[in-house]
Design a protein that fits this description.
This protein is an alpha+beta fold. It has 4 helices and 24 strands.
Length: 367
Amino acid sequence: MAGPGLKRVVGLSLLVLLSACGEKPQVEKDRPRVFVQAVKPAAYAASVTLTGDVQARVQTELSFRVGGKIIQRAVDVGDRVSARQVLAKLDPKDLQTNVDSAQAQVTAEQARVKQSAAAFVRQQKLLPKGYTSQSEFDAAQAALRSSQSALTAAQAQLANAREQLSYTALIADAPGIITARQAEVGQVVQATMPIFSLARDGERDAVFNVYESLLAEAPDDKSVVVSLLGNPAIKTTGTVREITPAVSAQTGTVQVKVTLNGLPEGMQLGSVVSATAKIPGKSAIELPWSALTKNLSDPAVWLVDDDGKAQLRTVTVGRYLTGKVIINDGLKDGEKVIIAGGQLLHPGVKVEIAEDTYKDLAEGVQP
């Protein structure tokens, strides 16, 4: 009969044997579960809403042609003016003095012409009778011609002085509306310094500042619907007539001018307007925001290769939209992009592709 020690040893042996029989082989670590979307390129045409204002086709900077002190201003911003209307005046004293001096010079030259003409007539009568010499006759004739030339020059100076005096009145050269004022009464201004900005009557343009990238390709349709920003129900149509060839150094934009086909009631000069334009479509791929990650500093996405492994791919983003991005380059048709579950991935890790749709996950449906 076995003793207590033998029983204890046999029991431990049986326990070890049973434990060994209960062991299972080590299972593979769980794979990250991801949601994917197949790449399907499609023609993408973005729409861009621009804001601008209504401007006159022709805008003129009005300035004095002579310098002086402003003594009168007859109009203000927003006033309608007619052609040949006086808008402002300069102090005419100095220029009036020039006119008076030129007038006195003309009077003096007229007296010289009269005197030299009388002397020439006398010489002309005496020469046939032999009472004067040919040299004295020639001298009288030369003196007359010289005085006549001096009179002509004095008359030209008088006309110029009078013209300069007339420039002390700033006159509108066409009907329109004053849109800006750059000087005040009492201010001393130089010639050609802008005093008023005049929006001439006539055709009106809607002017927009557009980023150059939006104009990489010319639009197929140049017709534009322009609406009042404060009341979109007030609208009109127009045609793109001009795109500035240079980018503004201040704003980094180019200017687009749209000729309006008339102004409806409520839309006028200076009104703020908006227009929506379609950018020519190009092949692109639309993905949800969740698919986008980074490869160092460049945008990238995770792909699932044929072996079921995750791979990081750098892409080119064409446009960021609400809830989605437009990929222009870096992906091929049919590739599988991870759109959810890629937070803890690293290149080469095997993943499990979820059968449930990403939409179900977003809506809280349990798989």
